[in-house]
Amino acid sequence: MRSPFSHLPNPACGGADHGFHRRKFLQGAGAAGALSLMSWGGLFSMPAFAEQVKRSQKRCILLWLCGAPSQFETWDPKPGRPTSGPFRSIPTRLPGIHFSELMPKCASIADKLAVVRSMKTNQSEHLQGIELLNRGAGPRPPFIRPTLGSVLAQQLGHLDNPVPNFILLDPCPEGNEYKEFKAGNWAGWLGAEYAPVRVGGEYRIENVLRAVDLNAQDHESRNALRRFLTRKFENDRKSAAAASQNAVFERVRGLMSCAPLFDLETLPAADKERYGPAAFGMHTLLARHLVENGAPFVMVSNGMPWDSHVFHNEIYQMLVPELDKVLYHLITDLEQRGMLDNTLVVAMGEFGRTPWINQARGRDHYPNAWSLMMAGCGIRRGVVVGSTDIDGVEVAGKSFNEKNLFATIFSALGIDPNAIYDIPDLPTFHRVEDRAEPIREILS
User: Cα separation of 117 and 89, whole Å?
Assistant: First the structure.
């Protein structure tokens, strides 16, 4: 039977707030006091201070649904229409709002969520879509724009935090078919110190223990000598590359002290049972644990399972209930721990899926009208913004793009989206270009 939407394009698969921010601290603190503080172990060596920062800091967890999830089987069902597929819709806690029947748990906490049903972007291939939705603007060669995670690491990170400021949890950290993005320049002009620490697979960081024949005093003496020599080289050459390398060395030292945080074996069995057993759930549990212990930004990726060009309905019968369960437990746990108001949660992919089903019983790439979910810090609870037409082919009314999204994320976290990057020898770049407006309907 010919699809009623066969005339439409069918893209193919192409294969404590900022109070202790590093710069502000160095600008406002006396040099002698700051140096003496750092010399005996750093700010986070003071337990009371560390606990205060953890309680008050703003954080973000990005659940990256790589491959692009379908809006029809999640946030924007079209029951009874040719585009709906076999799944029904169910009511939520919000009057008149329905989610897919595959998401009963999220329907039960819809009053804590904000859903945007009117996203519209302009990239229909994975790599380009991932780049666009992670950097917030199209490429401007030869300059490489930092990803969202790197910007938030810079803005939300804290001086001397042993926990990495940008953590990427990925079931295949060595890279998948889109390894060019995974291994690419995440931090752009911000520098390597704001690149992610990528962890995956066994859920723990390997090779961070001090050699058994090296005592702590000798280990620290070696580090002190290295710091002295590399700092001298950096100052003599005025080298940004050397500065980034030095920052990476310091990050490794922090990882040695916080490596146990990455070991899921230390978490309660009941938590692992609720989130697991799949890698996506385990990584989301680990993300919750990491932000609870001082990580400002954690991105959870899940490979490419959402790219459903074949047997879409069968695949989504497995994928969506897992997402439903994981989101429900993450939002509920953050609220029970008193962390939801300070933790922004975003669940999204690089675009949506087509309203039509192809000949292989799949849905293809579709950036013209798709959905995402946000909750927590700076976000209104229980709102659904935007809509699509009766069959989900086009946005009905006002649409939002990647720039509106980034402006929303920055605004929710108390970051000025219109600020100019303070980068020497670069043209003018704003955190969000074109003074794009945030999606004000979902901002609290």
Answer: 15
Taking only the tens place, the pLDDT of each residue in 170-194 is 876 555 545 545 557 899 999 888 9
Residue 206 has, within 13 A of its CA and on its CB side, a CA count of 5
pTM: 0.83
30-56 residue pLDDT tens: 333 333 333 334 445 455 555 555 556
395: confidence class by pLDDT, cuts 50, 70, 90: very high
Amino acid identity of 172? C
Tokens of 372: 């995402």
**CA gap 402, 399 in Å, rounded:** 11
- Give Dmax (Cα) for the chain: 77
Using omega within 30 degrees of 0 as the cis cutoff, is the peptide bond preceding 142 cis?
yes
Asked if 208 and 255 touch (Cβ cutoff 8 Å), the reply is yes
Domain annotation for the chain: domains and CATH numbers: 57-204+276-442 (3.40.720.10), 206-262 (no CATH)
